[in-house]
Design brief:
mainly alpha
């Protein structure tokens, strides 16, 4: 028997869920801002990024998945663009600091660096959530650090 899903959400419930999603995004952005505020090495970026992913996968991803499922309309949360812009600003500030310190290859653009980090973070988070749900031990954290290092390091 096919499962029927009710997709109609009352406007008040949708606003509440969107408000909750906005709060969660803002809270994650603040965690990231604090986590990287004094980061001044590529190794620090690698360690902190992977630790952050492990923390979110273990402690908050279940909640975020429930919010997304309850909204039932991917991409329809109005707060996402503003939160994504804020996160890009946080990352650009970090990357400029690391490039100025000679930790990240100055020959690569900030857009490239952001794309590399977001790709590693999104893929890493999916992998960490999957391995956590299945109880699988993997070398994923170390591989993510190596991926970030090899992608962003100063080329000799």
């Amino acid at each position: 028997m096919e499962k029927v899903r009710c997709t109609a959400i009352f406007p008040q419930r949708r606003r509440s869920l969107q408000g909750l999603a906005e709060y969660c995004f803002a809270r994650e952005n603040e965690r990231i801002r604090v986590l990287f505020a004094d980061c001044c090495t590529l190794a620090g970026l690698e360690e902190r990024a992977v630790a952050y992913l492990q923390d979110i996968a273990a402690n908050r991803m279940g909640d975020y998945k429930m919010i997304a499922q309850a909204l039932d309309t991917p991409g329809k949360c109005e707060s996402v663009p503003a939160c994504a812009d804020e996160l890009r600003d946080i990352m650009r500030t970090l990357l400029i600091r690391l490039q100025a310190a000679g930790e990240i290859d100055p020959a690569v653009s900030l857009e490239y660096c952001c794309t590399a980090i977001f790709s590693a973070v999104v893929g890493g988070l999916i992998g960490l959530c999957f391995t956590a749900e299945c109880g699988i031990q993997s070398g994923l954290p170390e591989n993510l650090k190596m991926l970030l290092h090899r992608t962003l390091q100063v080329q000799q």
